[in-house]
Amino acid sequence: MKPTHIEHIGIAVNSIADAIPFYEKVLGLECYNIEEVADQKVKTAFFMVGQTKIELLESTDPEGPIGKFLEKRGEGIHHIAFAVENIEERLREAEAAGVRLIDAAPRRGAEGLSIAFLHPKSTLGVLTEFCEDKNRENK
Ligand code: ZN
């Protein structure tokens, strides 16, 4: 089954506070949520563009995944997240197709979504995330 849309694009920034003016004043978007995901050692800020979100990622620990990314590559696009249905099944399909998984099973991401990452070595250098809003199914 195809992904339904691009759920969000994750962008690593040194500082969410410094990045927000570009998104709000220049692009005219509105930051509607700021949330820390302790598990991932990040603070996130969200903007809605149509059906797709921009997720700014600020590191809260230099040893965390975003801290390491910023040190190696600097600010920029960090990952692309596809909205999927039946995330567990999609992971099994990807694995069966030879894709290396970072997360063998979905875990809880920002905004209560079920998320799982595929390894960029298996996805042409683009860190790829599957993401499912399990709450939305019940609406
Ligand atoms: Zn993400």
Care to describe what's here?
This protein has helices spanning 16-26, 65-73, 87-96, 134-137, and strands at residues 5-13, 31-37, 42-49, 52-59, 76-83, 107-108, 114-118, 128-132. The chain has 139 residues and is of the alpha+beta class. β3 and β4 form a beta hairpin. The radius of gyration is 15 Å and the shape is globular. The chain has a single domain, classed as Roll (2,3-Dihydroxybiphenyl 1,2-Dioxygenase, domain 1), CATH 3.10.180. The longest helix has 11 residues, at 16-26. The chain binds zinc ion. Residues 8, 10, 55, 79, 81, 129 line the site of zinc ion (ZN). Residues 8, 10, 55, 79, 81, 129 line the site of zinc ion.
Provide a concise account of the structure shown:
It is built from four helices and eight strands, in the order βαβββαβαβββα.
Structural class: alpha+beta
CATH topology: 2,3-Dihydroxybiphenyl 1,2-Dioxygenase, domain 1
Write down the secondary-structure element order. EHEEEHEHEEEH
The DSSP helix count reads 4
Fraction of residues in helix: 10-25%
